[in-house]
Amino acid sequence: xxxxxxxxxxxxxxxxxxxxxxxxxxxxxxxxxxxxxxxxxxxxxxxxxxxxxxxxxxxxxxxxxxxxxxxxxxxxxxxxxxxxxxxxxxxxxxxxxxxxxxxxxxxxxxxxxxxxxxxxxxxxxxxxxxxxx
Length: 133
Known about the structure:
Elements: E1 14-18, H1 22-32, E2 36-42, E3 51-56, E4 63-67, E5 79-86, H2 89-98, E6 102-103, E7 117-121, E8 127-132
């Protein structure tokens, strides 16, 4: 018998957010948040027009995939667990407000050891967090 092969996970490739309206979500993630489009290709074989879309901050390894919902999945209103990191949280918070994003009223500051942060909701009310580096 041969010894079992062991393969290790190399990285987190992407995080999937199921979307009802991929065009609207792509616009939000690129135009409102300022992420870049990494992939936009037909997805699935049923001809429904679904696409595999990936967005990410410039230079980032891990992408956010904006995909059609899988079987039994209802898109929207999810707590994604995604945190975006910025250098100047107050400026980014103001920028998102200016662009009409649904952001918390103010940046939360919890004290030493916890970075300043705020939450926002995307075009389908999925919640993400922003934290200062």
